[in-house]
């Protein structure tokens, strides 16, 4: 009479699944971190562009006001 050996396959499968989930989670976290970093860089560039546009418009407004003063009263220029 032979005694069948019990295998521990279900525990092995569970371990493989958990390791796979861990690896996929680490890859996903790395991708997410990379995307967040790129998003922060891009948003700071957009913010800088908007600030420089505001500064350029303000400079243009000041120059236009000075020209208007000169044209309306040339003796005061």
Describe this structure in words.
- This protein is an all-alpha fold and 77 residues long.
- It has a domain at 26-76.
- Helix content is 83%, strand content 0%.
- It has one helix at residues 9-72.
List the defining traits of the structure above.
77 residues; mainly alpha; 0% strand
Question: Number of helix segments?
Answer: 1
* Terminal Cα span: 117 Å
Overall mean pLDDT? 87
Order of helices and strands: H
Evaluate the radius of gyration: 34 Å
Beta-strand content estimate: under 5%
- Total beta-strand segments: 0
As an assembly, this protein is single chain
Largest sheet: none
Helix content percent band? over 70%
Low-confidence stretches: none
Shape: rod-shaped
The computed structural class is: mainly alpha
Structure summarized in a few sentences:
The chain is mostly helical. The chain contains one helix and no strands.
How do the strands and helices of this protein lay out in sequence?
Elements: H1 9-72
